[in-house]
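Lecture notes, continued. The same structure-token format from the folding unit now serves as the input rather than the output. Read the line below as a description of shape only.
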């Protein structure tokens, strides 16, 4: 039995909360597909008084879609776009995403994907990574690649932080060993991948005064670092083999945790708490139990 659909008013209330936290104009519309990608709301649904529920995930896989159906949620907030490339036809027999879309619509479940709006926003995922790395002990935190739009009024005083990636200068020198410990502890990871220049015999011997970081993939963003920005430490989800090798040859330390592992804890903790606060506990916010990075350390 399908659940009753969320009313348009109820859906808009949740979407407005997301847009307040992460203004949609900050998303990189040159290539990203953000916003309400599936709208299954109705004019006067949910009349049985059912408390609205939202499922949070990084990736809307078929397993996450089935979880949403089983839990009878009204809305999935999936950080990554569910519909990324244009669909010219629906072929569920050969495309699992198409089948998931059909299943979600048949079960009155809407889908919203904020993605790069979260990346670029103040107190979004990149600022979260700054927080866990520095614990507030920094003298400079600015975006590496700026957004191409004017900030909303409340962001004007901190506009240098608006954009993709972060370049951070620390107040006090630290070590690669300490920052890697903070990454693993905060992101709940047992392992990460580290590249250390050959002349260093231990992570504790590599000293750090500045950091470049980017949630997801840092490949494009790190290319935007200015000549004045020369970070000692690079942290992101993924880079290519040759990008890592080039940084190692330049004497840099690189830490990779896999793409979505750099994003997931923000979605599960910070986003959940921020939404719950804005929605006055009138909506159930559920963290997906099925959402995980497709690559696992073994």
């Amino acid at each position: 039995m399908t659940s009753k659909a969320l009313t348009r008013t109820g859906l808009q209330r949740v979407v407005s909360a997301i847009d307040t936290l992460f203004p949609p104009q900050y998303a990189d519309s040159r290539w990203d597909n953000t916003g309400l990608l599936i709208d299954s709301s109705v004019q006067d649904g949910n009349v049985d008084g059912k408390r609205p529920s939202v499922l949070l995930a990084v990736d809307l896989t078929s397993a996450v879609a089935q979880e949403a159906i089983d839990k009878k949620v009204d809305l999935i907030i999936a950080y990554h776009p569910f519909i990324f490339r244009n669909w010219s036809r629906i072929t569920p027999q050969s495309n699992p995403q198409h089948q998931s879309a059909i299943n979600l619509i048949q079960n009155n479940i809407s889908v919203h994907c904020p993605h790069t709006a979260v990346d670029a926003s103040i107190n979004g995922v990149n600022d979260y990574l700054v927080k866990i790395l520095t614990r507030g002990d920094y003298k400079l935190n600015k975006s590496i690649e700026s957004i191409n739009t004017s900030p909303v009024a409340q962001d004007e005083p901190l506009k240098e932080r608006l954009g993709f990636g972060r370049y951070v200068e620390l107040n006090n020198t630290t070590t690669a060993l300490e920052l890697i410990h903070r990454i693993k502890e905060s992101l709940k990871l047992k392992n990460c991948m580290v590249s250390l220049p050959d002349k260093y015999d231990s992570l504790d011997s590599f000293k750090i005064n500045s950091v470049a970081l980017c949630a997801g993939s840092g490949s494009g963003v790190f290319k935007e670092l200015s000549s004045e920005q020369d970070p000692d430490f690079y942290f992101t989800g993924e880079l290519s083999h040759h990008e890592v090798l080039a940084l190692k040859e330049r004497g840099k330390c690189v830490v990779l945790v896999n793409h979505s592992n750099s994003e997931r804890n923000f979605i599960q903790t910070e986003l959940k708490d921020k939404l719950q606060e804005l929605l006055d506990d009138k909506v159930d916010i559920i963290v997906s139990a099925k959402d995980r990075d497709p690559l696992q350390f073994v």
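Point for the exam: The radius of gyration is 20 Å.
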